[in-house]
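Reopening this one. Same input as before:
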Amino acid sequence: MAPERTPTSGGSGGMELGRFLRARRTQTTPEQVGLAVGPGLRRTPGLRREELATLAGISIDYYVRMERGKETRPSPSVLDALARALHLDDQEHHHLRELAARAARYAPEPPPAPSRTVRPHLKLLLESMRPNPAYIVSRSMDFLAWNPGGLALYAGLDDWPAKQRNLARYLFLHPTARELFPDWDTQVRACVSRLRAIAGTAPDAPDLTSLVGELLLKSPDFAKLWERYDVTGRKPAHKTFHHPHVGTITLTAQSMHLEGTPGQRLGVYVADPGTPDHDALLLLDLTAPQPAPRPAKQNPEQSPKPS
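Same output, byte for byte:
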């Protein structure tokens, strides 16, 4: 294994790496990693620091420095050893490496928030998908653009001003969300895991810190899930909605990154034509508030001449 390096101070980058390691350590039991547990009550949830250090083949002092954010340049072999010791899956292992890379190059200046502007051709794409509900969200899940069904599907979201519309905020703070999703617990776990994964490598980004700070303050459910530091939440391919206007519908969900944008994603829901679910989408699209028509461009040759 590569030799340990001298400790450095890595600011919030090193602290984020330490938070992730601590969260994974305290949620990994000795039984999961094949350790025999002696008699008596363990005061520490999960693995002790010295147990993890031994499993990974590194010194306890070195591991403690990592968890406290004071060692920000662990070698790849150290990271791989910790990943094996903690039984991290591929996504968690990748996240650990990203955190370490960020800690090593940490810059104290927070990055600016990405642009909220949605390009005109993407808005046309949303319209072309009707009656399928579709929308575009930012990396922090702000609702940036939508077609009528895309907004109406999240019942009550249009109660909020446009700049407040955010899927994470909706799931945790809107009173309709728990009624809309029969699997609300699964939805919010996936939501927090996605935010955790993004914030782990950009913890000082203003769009993320503002949202996370608000939800930590206002939602005990969010705070509890945030503390777990899960980054592998899986979104179900099919989602069921108990919608107050069109009844219970089950739709296939698809989300994709939009190239050439600052982390924006397209979300769309579809149902097989001729099914009751597709009929419900038609009804939702027809009854949702329609976008205001754009003013027609006037041909300069047809402009009235000044008298």
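So the earlier flakiness isn't reproducible anymore. For the record, Strands lie at 134-137, 143-146, 238-243, 247-257, 265-270.
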